[in-house]
Amino acid sequence: MSVAVDLMDGVAGLLAAAGLGTFPVDDIATVPDPITLRKAPAAPDRLITVSHYPITGGGWTTDTEEGIQVRCRTPGEDLRATDELADAIRAALDGHEHAQMGATHVSLIAWQSGASLGQDDAERWEHTQNFHLITARPRAATD
Fold first, then answer.
1. Does 50 reside within a domain?
2. What is the 3-state secondary structure (H, E, C) of the chain?
3. How many other β-carbons are positioned within 10 Å of the β-carbon of residue 123?
4. Domain span holding position 12
């Protein structure tokens, strides 16, 4: 698999292990509290989505910093449920050390930022958080 997929799968697995949702998901419609990769379908109302984005990395080193964005949403008018879920996500990931995610070793997961996204068109509260993962990205051998 790619580094991006390894990291998304790994973070989703950590969230599931913390009891925050179900991963992997075969059928989003039938699984309680699904955790998905990049996809945020209209249903169900409670959802966690994990996405990867690159941050840094140079050709002279294998050390790299990769980004993971975790979005969550909850139904209802009370925004506290989304804030509580966001806090639980941060607690599960921030400061996590030495995790093997597929073929990628992550030495540290560090929280960087987060914000409420307000309510969506279905009046569900949404929140987003960004985490930086310190990894060693494999690179091609040179002669």
1. yes
2. CCHHHHHHHHHHHHHHHCCCCECCCCCHHHCCCEEEECCCCCCCCCEEEEEEEEEEECCCCCEEEEEEEEEEEECCCCCHHHHHHHHHHHHHHCCCEEEEECCEEEEEEEEEEEEEEEECCCCCEEEEEEEEEEEECCCCCCC
3. 10
4. 3-136
Domain total of the chain: 1
Residue found by looking up tokens 């964005």 in the block: 69
- Is the peptide bond preceding residue 44 cis, with omega within 30 degrees of 0? yes
Mind listing the pLDDT tens digit for each residue in 27-82? 888 888 999 999 999 999 999 999 999 887 655 556 789 999 999 999 988 899 99
pTM of the model: 0.91
The CATH code of the domain that includes 19 is 3.30.2000.10
Quote the percentage of the chain above a pLDDT of 90: 76
Residue 136, Ramachandran bin (φ over 0: left; ψ between -120 and 50: alpha; else beta): beta
> What is the C-alpha separation between 140 and 143, in angstroms, rounded?
10
User: 25 with 35: CB under 8 angstroms?
Assistant: yes
